[in-house]
Structures are given as C-alpha cells and as structure tokens.
Amino acid sequence: MANLDTSSLKALLDPAKTVTILFPGNPNYDHVAAGLGLKLVLEAGAKSVTVVCPDPMTVQFNRLVGVESVTDSLGSRQLLITFPGQTEYVDKVGYDLVGGELQLVITPKQDSPDLDHHKLQFIKGHGRTDIAILVGVNQLSDLGSLNEAAVQFLSDAKIIALSHQPPAQDYAHHVIYHPDASSVSELVVHLLDSLGIDPDADTATNLLSGIEDATDYFRSPRVNVNTFEIAAYLLRRGARRHQPVDANQLPPGAVPQAVPPIRKPLLSQKTPPPAAVAPVPSTALGFGTDSQQPEEPVEGQAKPAPSPDWYEPKIFQGSMLP
Question: Which domain-ending residue is among 214, 239, 264?
Fold first, then answer.
C-alpha cells in the first residue's frame, strides 16, 4: 500500500474528542462508503463522530453499515440559556430531579436583585467540533443547503479534505488525496494503514463496497494492482461482498419492462394496395356452373348484333290490368 504522510494528521486526531464528517450534496456511493468507514474506525477509538449530509440518504445506501446515523443538520442538540443584563446577579446554577422531571435552580447573589425570568433567552446551540473531515467536497458551495451554516460551524475546527484531487477551493488545513487511487474508499484504506489502524469487519465491508461501486466491480481503467491488493486485504479483514443485482435472475414481472411504442405510418408513406382477391367460382354463389356464365368478348372482336325485335316497342299486359 502507498504510505501517506500522516504525522501532522495523527497529531490532530489523537487529542480530538469530537469529529464531524461532511458529504457534499447528492454524494456518490463511494463518498458515503468512505465516510461511514471512517466513522466506524473513529468511534472505535473513543471519538464522538457525527456524519452530516445536506441531502437525505436514498435506498442505494441502505447496505452500508451506519447509514442510519447520517443527519442533515449541523446544529447542536444543546440548549443555551442566557441572562441578558442579569449575569452579574447569578451566584450559581444547579439542578434537581423532582418526580422524574429536571429542574434548573438558579441562585442569585446575596443582596442582589431578584432575577427577572421574563428576560431569560433560550437559544439552540450552534455546536462545535474539534475535527471536520470533508469527503469529496471540492468547494464549500458543494455543501448545498448547509453552506452558510458550515461557514460558522467550521470556523473553530481543524478541517481535513479527503478526495481524489486537491479541492478547487482552499478551505482545508490538511488535504489528503492520491491521484492513483481508484476511489476515495481505497484512499481511506491507505490512510488507515499509514495511521496503523486495522479496520474491523463492518469497516472493511463499507470500504470494499465503495471500491466495487466506484470501479464498476473492478472493470474501470483506474483499477491497478494496488486496488486488487487492497480488496484482498479487506476480505482478509472480514469484508462481506455485495453482489450486483442481475435482472435476469429476478422472477418474471419483478423488473418493469418498457412497452414498445406503436409506430404510426407517416403521412408521406403510401399505404400499400390491397392484395388481389381470387375470383369466387359461380357455383359457390348459386349461379350455376362456370360454363354457364357469359363469356367476355375478346378485344378487337365485333360484338354480335341484337335481334330485330329488340328495337320494336313492346306492350306488356298482366292479369291485374282491365
């Protein structure tokens, strides 16, 4: 495996207690697999890890371990209570549990005015983090709806960018990349190896799944000998492979089939003439035999003259006439 210079990174991670992993908007499978792999490793090292993505996780990520922990908010869960204009009156703050309910007890200083509870303000904390790892983020605008909140959230954090190439925006204190890596998940394996961390089975499963998806199951031209070595290493660490779904192996009707459209003839296309119909024998129509039918005159042959009485007037009489 390629050794990365992680001496400065290790100096940052060791004392850190809180780590936030951020994905860009609409992240690809490799980004999420790499980030969740890092999450599992850092949590095993007693770090408090939060994974944030501006867009919700879709069904394609469901097979990744830890995907249910991804949130779309950078806000802290802390509730801040401030005392505007009364801070100097506060002596101490404590709490009691009465009947299973939490009660905050604010004791004013002796000889100071009573606290006016109407002036208390309740503010949802913005939160903070020691380390922020941005996976696949080329520039902060990639964070989408979290862009504005991220500026304040990241102001006091040490930022690490993890990607194939250096980000277009210089927002990170440390950039970890490897242009020859087939995927970000492969880059994470290099990173863990340089830090001397062995992934567990769940972490190895996530990272191998990310490599397989990014390389089209090792068919990508980015695949090299290191990719296969890392895949073998992850399998030895207990990685479980996810086989691609073959539509031919599914039962009939499981995959909707496209109905071919009915093609109408263009106006410029001529309708072919109807097929010739064979003549029906006269016997089938009840007119006797074919030999009894009058013959058609031959072209060029004189037609026979009608009988003389044809031209004489005729008077018909019937029994009903007077």
Answer: 239
Note whether 143 and 165 are same-domain residues.
Answer: yes
Partners of 49 in the β-ladder = 19
Question: Same domain, yes or no, for 48 and 24?
Answer: yes
My answer on whether 113 and 54 are in the same domain is no
Neighbour count for residue 91 (Cβ, 10 Å): 10
pLDDT digits (tens, 9 = 90+) for 154-163: 988 999 999 9
Q: How many domains does the chain have?
A: 2
| Whether pLDDT at 6 is above 90 | no
Tell which wins on pLDDT, 157 or 81.
Answer: 157
Tokens at 102, concatenated: 């939490």
Average pLDDT, the chain: 82
pTM for the predicted model, two decimal places: 0.63
Q: Which residues pair with 158 in a beta bridge?
A: 131
Query: How many residues belong to the chain?
Result: 322
Alpha-carbon gap, residue 153 to 173, rounded angstroms: 15
191: Cα separation from own chain's centroid? 26
Across the chain, the runs of DSSP E, i.e. the strands, are 18-22, 48-52, 79-82, 90-98, 101-108, 121-124, 131-135, 158-163, 174-177
CATH code where residue 26 lies: 3.90.1640.10
From 123, 151, 184, the end of a domain falls on 123
Of residues 191, 185, 182, the one with CA closest to residue 226: 182
